[in-house]
Amino acid sequence: MNKKVIIVSACLAGLNCRYDGNSNSCEKVIEMVKNGTAIPLCPEQLGGLATPRIPAEIKDGKVITKNNIDVTMHFERGANETLKIAKLVNAEVAILKQRSPSCGVSKIYDGTFSGNIISGMGKTAELLSKHGIKLISEEDLK
Ligand code: SF4
């Protein structure tokens, strides 16, 4: 089998893995999973976090929940596990959910839980990018 496999944020594929127990279904991503070209992964679940969970944002390089718990370790673990899977399947491209503290490709929330968006990358996006994986956000698919 020579087909190139893509890693995708699981919430884009319709899995209810978001912090609030919902998904961010994206028809194009769902189609890729159905036809076998994409594998859905949720870095936050891979990092050992529960669903639903308290939302978290990146502040000064750390990931902090809305109730002020430092969950950076879980986010880094999830990023490492995602990278491991990406390498296992030789993924060269990942389609990730913009604005997430794990998956954000070029935009994240500013760490104040006020809805402000700044330039930045989620922990998993950053690690995948450092290892040469091309990142695309679901916004880029539209
Ligand atoms: S960590 Fe990524 S895949 Fe998981 S819910 Fe958040 S945006 Fe979706």
Tell me about this structure.
The protein has 142 residues and is an alpha/beta fold. It has one domain. 26% of the residues lie in helices and 21% in strands. It is built from four helices and eight strands. It has helices at residues 27-34, 43-46, 72-88, 123-130; strands at residues 6-9, 38-41, 56-59, 62-65, 93-96, 107-109, 117-119, 134-137. The chain has a four-stranded parallel β-sheet, sandwiched between helices. Strands 3-4 form a two-stranded antiparallel sheet. Helix 1 (27-34) links the parallel strand 1 (6-9) and strand 2 (38-41). Helix 3 (72-88) crosses helix 4. The radius of gyration is 14 Å and the shape is globular. The termini are far apart. The structure holds iron/sulfur cluster (SF4). Residues 9-11, 17-18, 42-44, 97, 100, 102-103 line the site of iron/sulfur cluster. The site of iron/sulfur cluster (SF4) has 12 residues, from helix 2.
Work out the helix count: 4
* Biggest beta sheet attributes: 4 strands, parallel
Q: Count all strands and give the number.
A: 8
Radius of gyration: 14 Å
- For the biggest β-sheet, the strand order reads 2-1-5-8
- Name the ligand types: iron/sulfur cluster
Task: Please describe the topology of this protein.
Layout: E1 6-9, H1 27-34, E2 38-41, H2 43-46, E3 56-59, E4 62-65, H3 72-88, E5 93-96, E6 107-109, E7 117-119, H4 123-130, E8 134-137
Parallel strand pairs: 1-2, 1-5, 5-8
Antiparallel strand pairs: 3-4, 6-7
Helix pairs in contact: 3-4
Bound molecules: iron/sulfur cluster.
